[in-house]
């Protein structure tokens, strides 16, 4: 395996899980998430000679998010409980509840709002970087983020109450 | 715990660290994409013009504070015709493909045919411009012009950075012609550009799933010729397009 390929494999192994999960947060669907993460990695590998010394993870993340924002036109789907991984044993019930809460509140957002929420609060990127990655202004990021959080507040009470009653 | 903290916690708590993709499949597809991009970089021109190639001329490497060299292109520097698809090295204007520049501020470049299009893009005190110039290609009487990316200095002089032209077929054949990519790392890198022959009202490039509208300007000498370029804020100069389409006023693909 060429040196560049070995570096890519190492990078992809380290980055796959987060990319897939970010895509899941943006789609609510594991199959779509894996497809999107794979697409991002394919494009990253295609450009590897140009980017591997730079910020490969950032490149893959930008590719993933833009790919999803551009392609989605459908709302998020409810997460099917029969796909919940079982390896976490006693935590499965917690996982199911948390995932349902997550999917419900993220499902109330538009694709771009979801992208901003995921970039800001999952990847912990500063507003200016989110703006660059989505090719929008910082003001748009602030206003969209604020609107998204307001939606979360209005969408959350019932599910939070349900969680509190567990 | 606030909703935001709860959200952050939930997004992390539901990660599946075992998620792993088939990297063999990823790399196979990546190699195919890499090859496609190389061919596409050769342009869209292959879609309609058969064969085109780049006559790359001086790429001025100055920043705003540099001695301000201005590429003054020779009348034409033409890559040899190839049979159908050109090698990628011809597809992109680059320093490697650049003949020794004759650089001098104040020495006029090739005389523009028609009006010079001012893009409004600034490089220090210079402004990015595009314009056609006359070229001659041995054995190709229907190739008489190429599109140049240049810079206009405050004193009005225009220097050429990159020139792209067909090397086979006809330079006015309908459709896309050569796409010009500036792969220099100069701060004054030319935005990706080209021209389309036909009633295009929109030209849309695709890269990494993003669709990017090009800016358009009709050529003063032939309104069927549409000069386009991509704002460097939305498409980094030198970044290869995955695809490009033109649409008419009704949104139909041309």
What can be said about this structure in brief?
With 166 residues, chain A is mainly α. Chain A has helices at 3-27, 30-46, 48-51, 56-71, 92-107, 111-122, 127-134, 138-165.
Question: How is this structure best described in words?
Answer:
The complex is a heterodimer of chains A (166) and B (254). With 166 residues, chain A is an all-alpha fold. Chain A folds into two domains: 1-74, Rna Polymerase Sigma Factor, Chain: A; 90-166, Orthogonal Bundle (Arc Repressor Mutant, subunit A). Chain A has eight helices and no strands. Chain A has helices at residues 3-27, 30-46, 48-51, 56-71, 92-107, 111-122, 127-134, 138-165. The radius of gyration of chain A is 17 Å and the shape is globular. Chain B has one domain (20-247). Helices cover 15% and strands 32% of the residues of chain B. Chain B contains four helices and 14 strands. Chain B is elongated. Chain B starts with a helix and ends in a 7-residue tail after the last strand. The interface between A and B is large, with 48 and 34 residues.
What descriptive keywords fit this protein?
heterodimer, A: mainly alpha, Rna Polymerase Sigma Factor, Chain: A, Arc Repressor Mutant, subunit A, globular, B: 254 residues, alpha+beta, five-stranded antiparallel β-sheet, four-stranded antiparallel β-sheet, 4 helices, 14 strands
């Amino acid at each position: 395996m060429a040196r560049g390929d070995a570096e890519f494999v190492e990078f992809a192994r380290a980055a796959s899980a987060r990319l897939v999960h970010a895509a899941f947060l943006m789609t609510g669907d594991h199959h779509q998430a894996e497809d999107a993460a794979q697409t991002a990695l394919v494009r990253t590998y295609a450009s590897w000679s140009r980017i591997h010394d730079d910020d490969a993870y950032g490149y893959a993340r930008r590719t993933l998010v833009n790919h999803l924002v551009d392609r989605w036109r459908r709302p998020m789907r409810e997460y099917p409980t029969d796909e919940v991984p079982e390896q976490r044993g006693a935590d499965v019930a917690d996982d199911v509840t948390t995932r349902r809460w997550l999917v419900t509140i993220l499902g109330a957002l538009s694709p771009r709002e979801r992208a901003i929420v995921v970039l800001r609060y999952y990847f912990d990127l500063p507003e200016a970087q989110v703006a660059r990655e989505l090719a929008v202004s910082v003001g748009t990021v602030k206003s969209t983020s604020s609107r998204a959080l307001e939606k979360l507040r209005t969408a959350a009470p019932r599910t939070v109450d349900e969680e509190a009653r567990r | 715990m606030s909703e935001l903290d709860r959200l952050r916690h939930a997004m992390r708590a539901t990660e599946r660290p075992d998620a792993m993709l088939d990297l063999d499949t990823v790399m196979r597809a990546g190699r195919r994409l890499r090859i496609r991009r190389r061919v596409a970089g050769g342009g869209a021109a292959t879609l309609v013009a058969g064969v085109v190639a780049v006559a790359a001329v001086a790429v001025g490497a100055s920043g705003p504070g540099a001695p301000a060299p201005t590429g003054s292109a020779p009348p034409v520097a033409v890559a040899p015709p190839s049979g159908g698809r050109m090698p990628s090295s011809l597809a992109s204007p680059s320093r490697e493909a650049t003949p020794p520049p004759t650089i001098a501020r104040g020495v006029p470049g090739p005389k523009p045919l028609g009006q010079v299009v001012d893009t409004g893009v600034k490089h220090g005190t210079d402004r990015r411009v595009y314009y056609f110039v006359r070229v001659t290609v041995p054995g190709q009487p229907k190739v008489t012009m190429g599109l140049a990316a240049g810079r206009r200095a405050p004193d009005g002089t225009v220097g050429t950075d990159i020139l792209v032209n067909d090397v086979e077929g006809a330079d006015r054949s309908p459709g896309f012609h050569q796409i010009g990519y500036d792969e220099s790392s100069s701060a004054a890198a030319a935005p990706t550009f080209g021209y389309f022959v036909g009633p295009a009202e929109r030209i849309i490039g695709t890269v990494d799933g993003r669709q990017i509208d090009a800016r358009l300007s009709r050529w003063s000498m032939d309104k069927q010729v549409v000069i386009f370029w991509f704002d460097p804020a939305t498409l980094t100069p030198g970044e290869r397009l995955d695809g490009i389409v033109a649409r008419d006023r009704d949104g139909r693909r041309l």
